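Supplementary Methods, section 5.1.

A reviewer requested that the exact input to the structure prediction be made available. We therefore reproduce it here, unchanged from the version used in the analyses.
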Amino acid sequence: MKSRKGHPFLIVTLLPALLLAGCWDRREINDVAFVLANSFDIDKNGQYKQAAIIALPGQMGGSTGGGGGTSGKSPYYIDDSVGFPITNGATKLQVRMSRVLNYAHRRVIIIGEELARKGIRFIFDVLARIPQNRITTFFVIGKESGEKLLKAKPHLERFSGEAIREIITLNPSGKVNLNEVWQKLSNQGIDMTLPVFKTVKNKGPTPSDEVMLIGTALFSGDKMVGMVTGNEARAILWLTNKFQRYREVISFGDKPKEKVGIQIESGDKKLELISVKEPLRFRLSLHAEGSIVESTANVNLDNEQYIKEMEKMWAKHMKVEMEKLIAQMQNLHSDVMGAGYLLYQTHPKEWDKVKNRWYDAFKKAKFDVHANLLIRRVGQVTENVDIWNNQSGTQKQ
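The structure derived from this sequence is encoded token-by-token as follows.
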């Protein structure tokens, strides 16, 4: 008679196999349509129009040519649908697909400006309810329309969504993802900003539609109410604790052409509530360090007195610019600094009194701007390179 001593050991060994996951719910890659980027717009009938870049895996290999980011065949195609609500349009898109749409690899969502000005809360309601939507997806505004930006064909990247993602990565202070948007929409007393892109015609030997970051959209609640560009956009990032270094040009001297270019290397701000008695009063303290990158002023920067005077002129310039920007935000009812959130956190009872009319209180609020700005470096040359010619009256040969 054979021994049965090994049977219990065999049973114990095989039992865990019952807990192993099987392939009952597997999905072949050939049965999946990966959405790489999306756009949302609104048509004249109030319907949501959504377009999607869908990958063609067979065409996603490396380029056969040299240097460029494109190959002979397109690695994607774009499809669109119209419907209300958003899920209705997504269903219409799915029913004409031979593969199941998968949004887990979507990195960029583009919202057309017209839709953004009407309100985008419905879009985020859908995105928040479906677990497949990754919270690291970037959100941007399309200046003309979301679909036009989505259909751009940049040279250096395979599709517009990837170009937008790379540009945002190079400008990290402008990153706004799904998680941040959720937080801003759900928190009291603070509004969000989103980067704004547009298409630009490349007039080279092979014309193309490139994508370009042109500014920052300001929101009031879930509605876009305005846009700032250039140094104003960079100052907005400063006020929202997303400082990115940039350059300012200030006047220094009696002559119109005496200018100094300053690279602002680092910056932070502190917002304090001074008085809860209406009109509310806040103190905004700016701190920054910069380097002189250009000077047309005939001064010797080895002289500490000139550096101190330059710092005062720079601080005065920034104070005026920030006051203008805050006034613009107040007129637009866009509290991207979070003044209301500060009131809510520090004086919740006072916040309860004004929360239903916060934008009126915000518009009347007073902001005392103080700037503490330091010039740390003046470069390898301490004088204007043409100062000797100006003094001698001679010209360079």
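The chain has two domains: 28-228, 230-397. These observations are discussed further in the main text.
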